[in-house]
Amino acid sequence: MEEKLNEIKALLKKYGQEHLLSHYEKLDDAKKKELLKEIENIDFELIKNLYSKTEQEEKTSEDVITPIEYLDKYKLYDDYKYYENIGKKAIKEGKLAVVTMAGGQGTRLGHTGPKGTFDIGLESHKSLFELLSDGIKEEEKKYQVTIPWFIMTSRENNKETLEFFEKHRYFGHQKDKNIFFFIQGELPMIDTEGKILIGEDGLIKSAADGHGGIYESLLKSGMVKIMKRLGIEWVFIGGVDNCLVKMVDPVLMGIAIDKGVTVACKSVVKANPHEKVGVFCKRNGKPNVIEYSEITDDMAEARDENGELLYGESHILCNLFNISAIERMGSEPLPYHIAYKKAKYMDKDGKIIVPDSPNAYKFEAFLFDAFGEVDEMAILRVKREEEFAPVKNSDDVGVDCPKTARRLYRKYHNLD
Predict the structure, then answer these.
(1) Residue 298 in domain
(2) Selection from 283, 222, 196, 210 nearest residue 20 by Cα
(3) Mean pLDDT across the stretch 31-47?
(4) Residue 10 burial (C-beta neighbours within 10 Å; 0-12, 13-18, 19+)
(5) DSSP string, 185-228
(6) Domains in the chain: how many in total?
(7) pTM for this one?
(8) Choosing a second label site near 120 at 20 to 30 A (CA), which of 47, 262, 307, 313?
(9) Which domain CATH number covers 82?
(10) Is the pLDDT at 56 greater than 80, yes or no?
């Protein structure tokens, strides 16, 4: 252990991060080992490069942004049944798995615990996890097939998530047979001087690497191998906070299979031209999602000959991938985006610092940045009131909150 410690000291000196061992002697043996392992796993060159980007002025993008074609699920007419039958066949053959990204905490909702354990206030008092589970079981019954469910947690909420599922007997699923858990990747947080932060526990202060880490996490955790062993060819990936998510959609699958694309996504039309959402587009001729901050007023308000917004298809984190696309997208890291956040940390003197304004950088990859890996993808417009009821904010915000999600859920399921 002494030899390893000396190696790590040399590594930290090389990158100017010697402070990471400033509390080493105060840790117990188990934490000492954990800290050394964490430091060994840090890609210091990556952190150095990411920090250099925080100092650079953002360049004006010269990308060429153009509209992307889409299909409206309720204007397919005769083709609806055609696509549906193709998708049904694949589902019945056991070729579909579903993935739920559930690494977040319910802090913004005033909830202590993983967001998936949040009760949105229905009479049943079912959590978001149970509502999603109900949807899966309903489709399994309909198609007489097992649909494996993969749940991505984070280091922060993994233990609580597993305990919650164990307490509820996995809602009828069988652990490691048709329900699987894996942990999202993380990156260290750094201060404005490029120094990696130390957490309150004396270990590295890390943050989840964004939903774009899903591809790499599926590969590194061995989940892709399990999917292949189960005969899975298509994987739906969605977030835990959408209580109306339709993870099993034969029409979406049928379109993907028929058109020979490896990625198919759902969209809902923007509520208004200036709604603050990312929208599907083509960037330099490749599929992509453009953030609302990148859209000019002219682009936001532009319409086609039918009066439809040219950039009106919101990305709602409902995406279907061929397993080959996940392998390809997970083989190379995506670009990281910088977020400036408030982060509690321990200083070199052992004092816990609780900032009242942003003080640290975290780095996140976005799932849709991988879309440029494919030449074409299918976009299917669905109805917001049928498939998109996210729970992101507290009720006092008034949008995408328990109250709005509850209303949409009750209306869709005829509970009023």
Answers:
(1) no
(2) 196
(3) 95
(4) exposed
(5) -EEE-EETTSPBPBPTTSSB-EEE--GGGHHHHHHHTTHHHHHH
(6) 1
(7) 0.92
(8) 313
(9) 3.90.550.10
(10) no
